[in-house]
Specification:
The protein has 19 helices and four strands. It is mostly helical.
Length: 403
Amino acid sequence: MESSGGLQLVGLIFFQRRVCAYFTCRCVGLCTACCCAGLRTVCFGLGGRRMDICKTFGMYLSICFLLLGGCSSDPQEQVMLGDQYSDGEGVPQDYAAAVKWYRLAAEQGNAEAQNKLGVCYAWGRGVPRDTAEGMKWTRLAAEQGYLHAQARLGAMYEAGSSLPKDYAEAEKWYRLAAEQGQETAVLKLLWMYHYGSGEQKDFAKAMKWARVASDQGMGFGSYHLGLMYHTGGQGQPQDLAQAVKWYRLAAEQGERFANYKLGVMYRDGQFVPQDYAEAVKGFRMAVEYGIAEAERDLGAMYENGHGVPQDDSEAVNWYRQAAYQGDEKAQFDLGRMYANGTWVPQDMVEAYAWFSIAADGGYTNAVKRRDDAGGELSPEQLSKAQKRATKLLEKYGTEKNWR
């Protein structure tokens, strides 16, 4: 082959999932074979000598463009070069340069570039922040059917950011993106239909999108199918067999809360035979993700010796971890431990403080216990306990978990 004053390389590109075939790339004084960032490229030089030349697509694509004077008019190549500058792949990170290439492609009608240019304006990357300009480019991309722009537009309408809050418009754009398989949009629709208010709340539609999410391998969808069968509602009867089925699938798909729900069902004997050992297993898997409810319930298993040897020290440990995350029932249990002197020294000041923040979080049983504890304290001790409660509330105040 003729080299035209430089080295000619023929690159055989191996993508992670497919072989893309080979191509040649010729530049003045230097030719390079290019591959996608992070993927392996095997390059063959003169005489068939193997050389590991390409490390990232960005490095060599950028060299080619720069040697050619940056004159590519192909919008997809412009988007790719914009990405390299945006990510700092093979070139110094330069948002202004990224905007330049995105704009060139966007002005040719490339929807991906329009969406990325919209993001740059929304976040002020490479250009002064301009929400109106960002909205313009995002809408152009969305109207061309670009799924990520449609999802972003839905989020803007839902949040009322850059646009007046409009749930009907949010639903419309989420649905368009979800019908193309955009995961965030699928989950947003599921959330809106399951937890929304008024006309938004639609159990049947929530079930539909939960199934779509599950079919796409999203544990969030399988979990919500289990949850909806577990609780029933809006004409959907409770079905514990289906709940167990979907919780198990969600757990296999890595949904962190599903193991906790399975643990609850085994503990309470809901559809499955009561099995404390299996309940403990589910709770242990859930606490690895820091789920406060699982930490609290594991503490109760240790306190009562269900599925594990009875161990008050372990009970206090798990109650404390859950209480620190704002779980009001665990805060109550920790107060109870201090009031009774169970494994920890009896301390009515500390008991009062934990009962107080549990009551503040809405745990009604804590109100009487707080008042009873306060009745055992001197005025000085009560003042100290109230100050302690204020500090605990600031640090560990209840944070309701949406699940």
